[in-house]
Specification:
Helix content: 10-25%
Number of helices: 5
Largest sheet: 8 strands, mixed
CATH superfamily: Vaccinia Virus protein VP39
Keywords: Methyltransferase, Transferase
Protein name: Methyltransferase
Strand content: 25-35%
Number of strands: 8
GO molecular function, one term: methyltransferase activity
CATH class: Alpha Beta
Shape: globular
Length: 200
């Protein structure tokens, strides 16, 4: 990872929470080398705007329900409800999806979680990676949702644990891979030669 790019994310551009630092210093650097062809980041705020720079070689999209925050979206942006993402994007379109800070902050009820996971699965390629970031106490644990379990496999990826929590925060990250692809393709995604595997 370019040192100049990393420097964009310290100081004022990124909140000081340990989960946000983990996102930019661990998760992004581990997933960028997979060269995902199409990436979706759900939710836009001022501090998410620079994230696009990490994925400058990908087709990077943002999705945000509130039009007032569209100014923080990427050049490829849609305003809409993630629960109905499958009405906004083509089936099997994305290789990598970030759903961070949305559960419990708009997508709250269990039924809303189920709708969200089902819609995301429909717009993701088989074997695509889903990162879910959520806060304990604000919503049900996503792992308890049957829709998520049916559509995605919870697992460690690219040297990162399947679940990562923080002592000083209620935030939790969970990593998943969309089911539905052949085992050979799925096993490529985070293997030693996984560089081009996510590019469609």
């Amino acid at each position: 990872m370019d040192a100049a790019l990393i420097s964009l994310f310290d100081g004022r551009l990124v909140p000081n929470e340990p989960d946000r630092k983990y996102l930019t210093s661990v998760i992004f650097p581990n997933l960028v080398p997979l060269e995902p062809g199409r990436v979706l980041f759900v939710g836009c705020r001022s501090y998410t705007k620079p994230y696009e720079a990490f994925f400058q070689d990908s087709e990077y999209w943002t999705l945000e329900i509130d039009p007032i925050h569209a100014k923080w979206g990427s050049k490829n942006h849609k305003t809409g409800d993630v629960r109905h993402a499958d009405s906004l994007f083509a089936p099997g379109y994305f290789d990598l999806v970030f759903l961070n800070g949305v559960l419990g902050f708009g997508v709250d009820a269990d039924d809303d979680q189920d709708m969200t996971f089902a819609a995301l699965h429909r717009i993701m390629r088989p074997g695509a990676i889903l990162l879910v970031g959520w806060n304990e106490g604000r919503c049900s644990d996503p792992l308890t949702r049957p829709t998520l379990g049916a559509a995605f496999r919870h697992q460690a990826l690219c040297g990162m644990p399947a679940r990562k929590g923080f002592a000083a925060s209620t935030h939790v990250y969970d990593l998943f891979r969309a089911v539905g692809g052949s085992p050979s393709r799925a096993d490529q995604l985070c293997g030693a030669s996984a560089g081009p595997a996510l590019r469609g």
